[in-house]
From TrEMBL:
Protein name: NADP-dependent oxidoreductase domain-containing protein
Recorded GO CC terms: cytoplasm
GO function terms (MF aspect): oxidoreductase activity
Region named Disordered: 1-31
Organism: Arachis hypogaea (Peanut)
UniProt KW Transmembrane helix keyword: no
Assigned keywords, A-Z: NADP, Oxidoreductase
Transmembrane segments: none
């Protein structure tokens, strides 16, 4: 199957999965940027090309962040997605991630995140290199306005001050 055919078929099932579906796989040793780009192509590079975080000027920094998350996940014996969910679980009792999936395999992976325990040092390490101000490029392209930012919630107390 040609790359273009693969991209077309993958675009038909396009979803915004964590880290371009790369994080659902078991953690593997860090990979050079070229291998990461090849993996991105297999999950539909076309789908992610317009996203600022995948632009060439941002990709190198973000690839490094992904590799570091992958290293920690490998040490913990979990997937990068499980590590991300575990980090969320460690944010406090008032935080409840709601991961979406249509596949039992991914559901089981999400449940597996509950068994991933992070030390305060690991939390600090993750937050040091994966903070919002460290990731390069916006999440959405210019002109895209997330609807939640201007939402009109039923109760004003639901909005953060």
């Amino acid at each position: 199957m040609a790359l273009d055919d693969d991209l077309k078929s993958d675009d038909q099932n396009a979803r915004g999965d964590v880290a371009a579906n790369l994080s659902r796989k078991k953690a593997t040793p860090p990979q050079p940027a070229k291998k990461l780009l090849i993996k991105l192509r297999t999950v539909s590079l076309k789908r992610y090309m317009a996203l600022p975080r995948f632009q060439p000027e941002n990709l190198e920094t973000n690839k490094t962040i992904f590799e570091r998350v992958n290293e920690i996940a490998m040490k913990k014996g979990c997937t990068p997605s499980q590590l991300a969910l575990a980090w969320l679980h460690h944010q406090g009792n008032d935080v409840c991630p709601i991961p979406g999936t249509t596949k039992i395999e991914n559901f089981n992976d999400n449940i597996g995140a509950l068994s991933v325990k992070l030390t305060p040092q690991e939390m600090t390490e993750l937050e040091s290199f994966a903070a919002v101000d460290v990731v390069k490029g916006d999440r959405f392209p210019d002109g895209f306005v997330p609807t939640w930012k201007n939402s009109d919630t039923p109760l004003s107390s639901w909005k953060a001050v």
